[in-house]
């Protein structure tokens, strides 16, 4: 099997190295907006480097992994579908809803395979939590607490391209909550703080955010995220039920220190970043994609299935702007109706405070 990887930054290089070691992948080809970077990564892992993404589609491959900057995702998803290639795309599909929905519909119309990159679905802890909930071990789950904390701010140039803290980081928690519990989010209330470094304000983003979510069965969830957790990279999920309580991400490398008289110490060292914390999950995710392409496995995260987490992210972004709870259905209707019908059927505060998120409808 011949698989192309477009985008050779941190995650693209990691995926490429994983595929280069895979027993069912005969050749890995790399492409990047910077041909020199693609050549450097190819030299390290024994892959072939192309001069740019278009060469991938001109020369063909069995499948393509899209790990380019998010703004390039929609056009690459469409090109892959047009060329009959199965595609794996890092989340999200796009930075705006018109591009996202257009890419998803065109991919589906072409009958193409599209798998989205929510790697927590492949993490051993999240898998075990899902099994515990689904087995009834916890009883009725009444509370969930999710944490995503980066160990340090990303480069200032990345922030305007990321889609923001909510869509870039918290979206993983939104997907994991629904996937683990089997309950969709129905309402969100979110706030954010840009009180830290000025580059966040300059990018129109926040460095810290929190959301209170209501799930369909009445479970209440809190999701907090920050870019600036100096203690280390910290991703956890706690689930509390009427019978038991469990946690994902609590272990020797959790960057947390108790100040109780008899503290429970986590000896460390703390996780440095997402690649170190979720390395095994990323590898399992790529193996699943290879098996999907070979027809051995049903798609574990189809493109349209990933929309649920994106709608929650949109609801949180809108909630932060309008300073009130937003129903997920309201946000989804806002997205779909604006795209196809134009403004006029939406709460006035959403239209007034978030007009720049929506182009004129066709």
Automatic annotation (TrEMBL):
EC number: 1.1.1.18
Domain Gfo/Idh/MocA-like oxidoreductase N-terminal residues, every copy: 1-118
Domain called GFO/IDH/MocA-like oxidoreductase: residue spans: 126-245
Keyword Oxidoreductase included in the entry's annotation: yes
GO molecular function (one): inositol 2-dehydrogenase (NAD+) activity
Keyword set, alphabetical order: Oxidoreductase
Domain of life: Bacteria
Main EC class the enzyme belongs to: oxidoreductase
Similarity section: Belongs to the Gfo/Idh/MocA family.
Name this protein carries in UniProt: Myo-inositol 2-dehydrogenase
Taxonomic source organism: Streptomyces smaragdinus
